[in-house]
Amino acid sequence: MGRAAQALSGGMDLVLRALVLQGIWLLGTLAGGLVLGWAPATMAALDAATCAERGEPIRWRRAAQVWRGSFLRSQVTLGLPGLFLVLAVAAALSGLLPVGLEVVLWLAAGLLLIALAHIPDLDRRYRLPATRVLGRSLVLGLAQAPTSLLMLAVLALWTGIVLAVPGLAPFLGAGVPLLVIHHLVDRSLDRNEDLLSRPADPPDGYRARPPRGTAAPPRPRPAATA
């Protein structure tokens, strides 16, 4: 009986958390006019999920600060990949393309969806250049292929549930996926700390500059020929 009560309490806590995340995401999306609002709203909602997972209370003022602080950057890190995803799906569903090209577009859409799911938590933990976030997110998603496939399966299942029960959409439509994605991605980041913190390899022929005030090492001279 005690375990059942504990499980029920934990389940109710997750539902309430998802409801709060849904509220943050909806208000943030509407505040930015849908098109420009969903990206910073996603960043704010996942930051709130992180606070809740640490046992901290979710504060709306903090969510508003995260929304404002990430507004411009998230248009590049999340907005552009989201636009590419929409264009790929729209082209694949148009019925005007050859079957082979449609398959390629669906594959690209799947990869973009996996990368998009990893971007907010990755960008929150590592302050990478905005242009490198998508590539690192895709690397993480491919490195954790089982987790990525599980994520896609959960998203597909939840989409089916919402389509079957449309009344869930205004209350939990985005909150549940955000909660699940954060849980899975945060653990993927922990497992791939070395991969993500490692600096990119320099291009061929690159020579690092010596620190200021130190002499550069001499260049090797070609061997004298007789």
TrEMBL record:
What are the entry keywords?
Membrane, Transmembrane, Transmembrane helix
Query: Which regions form coiled coils?
Result: none
Q: Where is the composition biased (Pro residues)?
A: 217-226
One Pfam assignment = DUF624
Q: Where are the transmembrane segments?
A: 20-39, 78-97, 103-121, 133-155, 161-181
Q: Where is the stretch described as Disordered?
A: 195-226
What name does UniProt use for this protein? Answer: DUF624 domain-containing protein
What lineage is this protein's organism placed in? Bacteria, Bacillati, Actinomycetota, Actinomycetes, Micrococcales
